[in-house]
Design brief:
Length: 573
């Protein structure tokens, strides 16, 4: 079934002197500021879910406060991501994963409404890499002497020195290392030594002995002054965190974990989750019901020539029904006992239920879902109270002038090589903006940010591909040819299944490809927000200037579905 385009038809205007055009412009609806946040795709435990959603909510509120004060979209993106970088719950800024040498090296990117970017990669000694990326973006538009071209991406020590030259505070490495990040480093270092010892019994790994790691190993590598961060956080949230969807990150099931806890000032449920509907409900009540809230629904994957598409769980708002293909299947009354792990999207409203593709209520899952559906190793990981989050954080904002901007930040893969650049630092892979065409009467533009397996996303230029698909309304068709697709749900599904998972460079890799994508398309009729992921869960929030509180959602993937997705439509008055 096909729907009509979401953009309203415009009567042709012919005017020799442009007077009619000026009258039409005066009648254009005023843009509504909005901000959209994601805190990473992966597995978010039910016990800690409210902590992730709280971080998304607070980041959205902070970004919106900037937008309401008249700040630009790039400033709002910086403020929101900076808040997430300061939260230990994310792998960005403070508390990031460590390199093999025990150093925090971060990546970040900011892209403005014109597609101009500023980025930093593998930069040490910076607490808020998103601010450094914004600094590089701002400096890139200022001319240099002798007609030199200002950089828009800097890495390593060069990026750090650039920050110093422009007055950015530098911090010692030990002040960027949280207790949880240090504990992960020690455990993973021991795992790595054991793995190398099996491969090379007679050799030392990187000059290190195969003895058991201790706190002294980290202190020697990353804290030569013998100082610690002084932050006394427990391990419940971050002890199992992975970054960027790496299914082979060094973790051995059964590794002793710390006691449940949370960052300072945050309460975390200490009881282990059970299969009961009461304990597994993932509702996070942040505000009163709003007509633009997400509504969970199911649809049956439509078959297309020469393509085999998995069943997909999608979630759309009431307003989205006007521009998404109508859902198929029987829609029964929502059930308040819907499972948090049944593929539905948990939202700010607790009375949303879940209906399976055949109209029957799905049964409760007995075990937490894997990081990546279908990977054997991912099903062996940890307990239900552990998080395994591909936690590149991202934000997209639209300011009062209608300008769109996007940004991403990440600490990278745990135990990575020094100097490794991740997708959060690469324009078109982790962050992308397709600017509006000056001759486009609808002033359409698209932004996309991703979280997932960085090396796999680089292979298919993930964020740029997704943004272009939405901008041009196309999907991959037979023989790799682009074909028109007006159903945005089918478009987002095809992007993950065909453009990402079906890419030869991803399909033929020994490690599985994981991705979560958040995208925003705006024109003169309003704003369309989309997300999709093939990981177990994806934490997001959205807030318009007309909203009192953000709408937060923890989208979860069912074992019966290969892709979960959702959408929200904000129409201008």
């Amino acid at each position: 079934m096909q729907r009509s385009s979401s953009s309203p038809e415009l009567s042709p205007i012919s005017s020799g002197d442009g007077a009619a055009d000026r009258v039409w412009r005066r009648k254009q609806p005023q843009p509504v500021a909005a901000i959209f946040i994601h805190a990473g795709a992966g597995y978010h435990s039910v016990a800690n879910e409210h902590v992730h959603l709280s971080a998304c909510s607070e980041a959205a509120k902070l970004g919106m406060s900037f937008l309401r004060a008249g700040a630009s979209a790039t400033q709002a993106v910086e403020a929101a991501i900076k808040y997430l970088e300061d939260r230990e719950i994310t792998n960005a800024g403070f508390g990031s994963n460590l390199t093999m040498d025990g150093i925090v090296e971060c990546d970040a990117t900011v892209v403005d409404h014109l597609g101009r970017s500023g980025a930093c990669g593998a930069v040490p000694g910076v607490r808020n890499p998103i601010s450094l990326a914004k600094l590089i973006l701002d400096a890139s538009s200022r001319p240099l002497s002798l007609r030199r071209v200002p950089p828009n991406i800097l890495v390593g020590e060069g990026a750090r020195e650039f920050g110093i030259e422009h007055g950015m505070p530098q911090v010692p490495n030990e002040q960027l290392v949280s207790k949880n990040a240090k504990d992960r480093y020690l455990r993973w270092n021991e795992d790595l030594k054991r793995a190398e010892a099996k491969l090379h019994p007679s050799n030392h790994f990187s000059g290190r002995t195969a003895e058991k790691s201790s706190a002294g190993d980290y202190e020697q590598a990353a804290d030569p002054a013998g100082q610690s961060s002084g932050r006394d956080h427990t391990n419940a949230i971050l002890t199992g965190t992975w970054n960027e969807g790496q299914p082979d990150s060094p973790h051995i099931p059964g590794t002793p974990l710390g006691e449940n806890g949370s960052p300072a000032g945050t309460a975390v449920t200490t009881a282990r989750s059970t299969p009961s509907s009461s304990s597994r409900s993932s509702s996070y009540t942040l505000r009163t019901p709003n007509p633009l809230s997400y509504v969970s629904a199911a649809f049956q994957g439509r078959s297309r020539p020469s393509q085999k598409r998995p069943k997909v769980r999608k979630s759309v708002s009431d307003d989205a029904a006007a521009f998404l293909t109508p859902l198929t299947g029987t829609n029964k009354a929502p059930s308040p006992a819907a499972s948090a792990h049944d593929g539905s999207v948990s939202t700010a409203e607790s009375d949303r239920g879940d209906i399976s593709d055949d109209g029957e209520k799905k049964e409760e899952e007995k075990q937490p879902l894997p990081i990546l559906a279908g990977t054997k190793r991912s099903r062996e990981l940890g307990s239900g109270d552990e998080d395994f989050v591909t936690d590149t954080v991202g934000a997209i904002a639209i300011d009062n002038r209608g300008h769109i901007a996007a940004g991403s930040s990440s600490g990278g893969i745990g135990m990575k090589h020094r100097g490794r650049i991740g997708p959060a630092a690469l324009v078109g892979i982790g962050t992308a903006v397709v600017p509006e065409d000056p001759e486009d009467e609808m002033a359409t533009s698209v932004a996309a940010v991703t979280s997932g397996t960085g090396e796999h996303m680089a292979t298919c230029i993930a964020s740029a591909k997704c943004a272009e698909r939405l901008f041009h309304c196309t999907r991959r068709g037979p023989s790799g040819q682009d074909i028109e697709e007006l159903d945005e749900s089918a478009l987002m599904e095809s992007f993950i299944v065909n453009d990402f998972m079906g890419h030869p460079g991803v399909r033929n890799q020994p490690s599985a490809g994981a991705i979560g994508v958040m995208a925003v398309k705006k024109d003169l009729s309003g704003i369309s927000f989309y997300f999709a992921h093939n990981t177990d869960s994806f934490a997001l929030s959205a807030m318009a200037a007309t909203d009192q509180q953000p709408t937060c959602t923890m989208s979860r993937l069912s074992k019966a579905h290969g892709v979960a997705q959702g959408a929200r439509r904000m129409r201008y008055d």
